[in-house]
Amino acid sequence: MNTLRTQPTWLTAVISFAFLILGWQLLVTIGGYEKFILPGPLDVWQQLKIVVGDGRLLRHSLITISEIIPGLLIGCLVAAPLGYLLAKSPLAERLLSPYLIASQAIPIIAIAPLLTIWISSVYWSRVAVAALVVFFPILINMVVGLRSVPSELYELMHVLKADAGQIFRKLEFPAALPVFMAGLKIGATLAVIGALVGEFVQPQSRGLGFLLIMARQSFKTDLVFVILLTLATIALSLYGLVALLEKRVLRWKLQK
Amino acid sequence: MSSPFLTAVNISHTFHDLPVLENISLEIQSGGFVALVGPSGVGKSTLLRILAGLLRPSSGDIHMADGSRQEPIGLVFQRDNLMPWRTVAENVRLPLELMGVNGREANGRVQAMINLVGLVGFEQRYPAQLSGGMAQRVALARALVHEPLFLLLDEPFGALDALTRERMGLELLRIWEAMPVTVLLVTHSISEAVFLADEVLVMGSRRPNTERPATITHRIPTGLPRPRDLAMERTAVFQDCVTAVRAAIESGV
């Protein structure tokens, strides 16, 4: 869990970013590419100022974010109880896990059009795609988290005559929380992908996915870059928020 | 002699068609301290789990003194099994929370228990910040905070170094003498069993060349006076008892 937290200091981050921009500019200058094939950093910066200025970037970003967050929440709300059921009931696991695993073999881009047929609302069909992508890692982490509870702690709870509710509140929930939070971090970034896939399938006049399709069709490659950077920023912020939440609820992990 | 606290009659247990325990009968006196020894894999922990009510034996009966079957018991394992997300004080408080004892009374009992096991000043530490010996003391405090009538110890000092182990044994005796609790200790250390217990039960198989199914082959009273101190380990009574237990274990298998 420390591998992602051993960040370089802000200085090395700035230096590596500067080198990235420099390399990018060099590639454009030496290669002499057309702007619609590979725009330079300055072109992208100009385009960013335009779409920020006319409010388009914010408007479409807010729509995409409004699909990501409910998608993430719904994915969690469905996956967590189901994960609990699978971890606790061998029968449920035998019945359901073949389908759950098989469903993961089908790429989301193939399932998404089905969802748009079944869900008439453009907005909710996009949320559904995001929720579906989030679902599996949360489910798996919930199962793994609950399975990691030492059997001796269950025995301790039993000799202390704890009831099922107490076992959940005082043992299973806190014991599974670290692994669940790790799943939530993965889910947060996947929700961004899910919302975008949903928008690609239902590109009705709003969202960053719609903007991306428009930009590509009109060969505004610099705008494509702006949108990709925006998506990366959204994903990173969401990941950061979940990491912050994790730090708060798992404070005991930080004690040395 | 006081009345028996626990009586087990003809306990047999089969695990996946493999007979593990056979016709085990034993009696533990109220307030007594009994040790269970035997080679590893002989089924000591299985018997302990049966007596703890965690495992239903394939056949046989267990009688306990009036009402003690429903009472929460105390349980300590070889690994401390503390909850890493709870501080020392919160870990010790767990049994009281489960029983609905809260507020000032709970705080007082938790603090008294922490004093008793010598962990004053460590209340707000997390288990990851404790040494093995300290963590095992917390586990002992957690097992006793609700004043159980029955304390089951499954190789509680097995993961500790020899010196810590010796000191923990003495502390356990001190606590046991201060509380009306009946103790069953599972251990693989013969000298620990003789030093701590009134009676040592030896588990083994009556059949040649196999450990299964196991039964209690010998009951050896230690005959040492109380309170005990480490000097007793050099007495002839202690040495004879250790020799007798060792001979019993070797003859049993």
The neighbouring-strand order within the major sheet of chain B is 5-6-7-3-8-9
Count of DSSP-assigned helices of chain A? 10
Count of individual domains of chain B: 2
By CATH, the architecture of chain A is named Orthogonal Bundle
Assembly annotation:
heterodimer
The largest β sheet of chain B comes out as:
6 strands, mixed
Gross geometry of chain B: globular
CATH topology of chain A: MetI-like fold
User: What string, H for helix and E for strand, traces the elements of chain A in order?
Assistant: HHHHHHHHHH
Number of strands of chain B: 9
- Roughly what is the average pLDDT of chain A, rounded to an integer? 92
The total domain count of chain A is 1
Binned strand content of chain B: 15-25%
The total of helices of chain B stands at 7
Topology:
The complex is a heterodimer of chains A (256) and B (253).
Chain A: H1 10-31, H2 41-53, H3 56-88, H4 90-105, H5 108-118, H6 122-147, H7 151-159, H8 164-201, H9 208-217, H10 221-249
Chain B: E1 4-15, E2 18-29, E3 33-37, H1 44-51, E4 59-64, E5 74-76, H2 88-99, H3 103-116, H4 132-144, E6 150-154, H5 162-178, E7 182-186, H6 190-196, E8 199-204, E9 215-221, H7 236-252
Parallel strand pairs in B: 3-7, 3-8, 5-6, 6-7
Antiparallel strand pairs in B: 1-2, 1-4, 8-9
Helix pairs in contact in B: 2-3, 2-4, 3-4, 6-7
